[in-house]
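User: Teach me something about this protein's shape.
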Amino acid sequence: MKQLSHSAKQTLSRAFCLSAAVIFLGTSNSAWALFSDDEARKAILELRKSLATTQLELQGQIDKLKAENTVLRGKIEELEKQGEDISTSQKTYYQDLDSRLGNFEPRSITIEGVSGTVQPGEKKAYDDALKAFQTGNLKKASEGFSAFASKYPQSPYLPLALYWGGNSKYASKDYVGAINQLQSLIKKYPNHPRIPSAMVTLGNSQLESGNKVAAKKTFSEIIAKYPDTEAAKDAQQLIAATK
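Assistant: First, the predicted structure itself:
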């Protein structure tokens, strides 16, 4: 076999080197590519793991804050209730204190539009008479209100004492006593809010005592003066009995 020329040998050598370089580069690129994908996967897995850990930590912190918030809310509600209890207790205390002081010193008050000074023991006397009426002890109530009216003629409770005293006497069939007490109320306090109702009891007392003329006059006056009241409705029904 003939030996290759020097030029041919150089050409073959170059071709071999080039082929080897191409193969090496190809192999190197493939290896690099595989290395990059593996690292990327590892990075993604690490990132996911890190995110999962962070989410668990955040959820734990959120749960802890919720628990603390629930405890705080419970404490706030408890404090609010304690505040309400204290407020109620103080109110009761001062009302009781005010009531006690009322038994020892005069006080200026307004009751159903009537102003005046309440003397020591005055309110208790009125309350005792009213309680007797409410429990059906009409004799004690009637005597109590009459005694109150005599002892405290300037009392802001006087209109009510006359009103309930008149009703007590009417309920116990003391019609003359009821008429006198209710007429005294109407004369002294013509603009008092209890007047329409007091006039109905007055008219009934007059009717029960046999004075139909006076009763008819009273009922007619109620209808004329207080047309839009319950007293007027009652008077309208009762006036038929005066014929």
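Now, about its shape. DSSP finds eight helices and two strands in the chain. The mean pLDDT is 81. If you'd like, I can walk through any region in more detail.
User: That's plenty for now, thanks!
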